[in-house]
Amino acid sequence: MNNNNRRGNASGKGGNDRKKTGGNNSRPGSNSGKPSFDKPGFGNKKPYGSKPHDKFEKKTPATPKATKPSDELRLNKYIANSGMCSRRDADLYISSGNVKVNGQVVTEMGYKVKLNDKVEFDGTTITPEKKEYLLLNKPKNFATSGDEGKDMRNVMELVRMATKANIQPVGRMDKNTTGLLIFTNDTDMIRKFSLPNQKSFKIYQVSLDRNLKFEDFEKIAGGVTLDNHRLMIDEISYIENQPKTEIGIKLRTQNVKVVRAIFEKFNYDVLKVDRVSYAGLTKKNLPRGIWRFLTEQEIINLKNIK
């Protein structure tokens, strides 16, 4: 570790079990000489008592009846599961008369539908989907939106064979930024991680055109003002055993463009930004351009983030 490292290496949480690997059959490549951000570092009593006893008659306890899973679903959840919007927004559409069930307008809150009912949302017939959660190690020259030029390839190409669900990326990432990107059809999660006050940690490796001066390192570590807003830096470090052009930085902001703006403010050209950790997820065993499904525990962890 470089002695000038003020706050230590940025680190994400450790390895995640892989349920399924998609994309292609590429073998994981080695990242020799690359920094390792994925090492750990950031992160019914049984009732008892005497049984009732009847001296005249021994009673046999009734066998509990097996309960069948309900085939009914609240209408707002049905809509949210279809990927159209969140439950909260679905309630607004329902109350406004924009939802039909079997041809009839329904405005009742809490209305339940069966899975074989025909539900129309704003004139479009919809079906509920199982929630899917994918993690992609995004390569360069893929955009997350369609407004970066007609010739630009879209990240959806990389995950199109993963599921039939209507998944979309969580947040935006420009074509030149690489690294971790979550995809899901869970509209509540997409909305949560897109809020400007979302406080989950993201860790980036930044490559600069020249060595980061120690005085600039110190200034960035103390916080940076961008567009009249003060941005606090959780951690910054020189990457161990790498040139001082390689910087690790840990932030809570959702906007990837902020990472470039920090260093450009001090007149450095940013050659590369790689997101190596996102809300506790890391790139371990996930080569560039490859995706995998999140584990159940990883999904729970994401949902528990405030």
Automatic annotation (TrEMBL):
<dbReference type="InterPro" id="IPR042092">
    <property type="entry name" value="PsdUridine_s_RsuA/RluB/E/F_cat"/>
</dbReference>
<keyword id="KW-0694">RNA-binding</keyword>
<comment type="similarity">
    <text>Belongs to the pseudouridine synthase RsuA family.</text>
</comment>
<feature type="region of interest" description="Disordered">
    <location>
        <begin position="1"/>
        <end position="72"/>
    </location>
</feature>
<dbReference type="InterPro" id="IPR020103">
    <property type="entry name" value="PsdUridine_synth_cat_dom_sf"/>
</dbReference>
<feature type="domain" description="RNA-binding S4">
    <location>
        <begin position="73"/>
        <end position="135"/>
    </location>
</feature>
<feature type="compositionally biased region" description="Low complexity">
    <location>
        <begin position="22"/>
        <end position="35"/>
    </location>
</feature>
<dbReference type="InterPro" id="IPR020094">
    <property type="entry name" value="TruA/RsuA/RluB/E/F_N"/>
</dbReference>
<dbReference type="InterPro" id="IPR006145">
    <property type="entry name" value="PsdUridine_synth_RsuA/RluA"/>
</dbReference>
<dbReference type="Pfam" id="PF01479">
    <property type="entry name" value="S4"/>
</dbReference>
<protein>
    <submittedName>
        <fullName>Pseudouridylate synthase</fullName>
    </submittedName>
</protein>
<feature type="compositionally biased region" description="Basic and acidic residues">
    <location>
        <begin position="51"/>
        <end position="60"/>
    </location>
</feature>
<keyword id="KW-0413">Isomerase</keyword>
<dbReference type="InterPro" id="IPR050343">
    <property type="entry name" value="RsuA_PseudoU_synthase"/>
</dbReference>
<dbReference type="GO" id="GO:0003723">
    <property type="term" value="F:RNA binding"/>
</dbReference>
<dbReference type="GO" id="GO:0120159">
    <property type="term" value="F:rRNA pseudouridine synthase activity"/>
</dbReference>
<dbReference type="Pfam" id="PF00849">
    <property type="entry name" value="PseudoU_synth_2"/>
</dbReference>
<dbReference type="InterPro" id="IPR036986">
    <property type="entry name" value="S4_RNA-bd_sf"/>
</dbReference>
<dbReference type="GO" id="GO:0000455">
    <property type="term" value="P:enzyme-directed rRNA pseudouridine synthesis"/>
</dbReference>
<dbReference type="InterPro" id="IPR002942">
    <property type="entry name" value="S4_RNA-bd"/>
</dbReference>
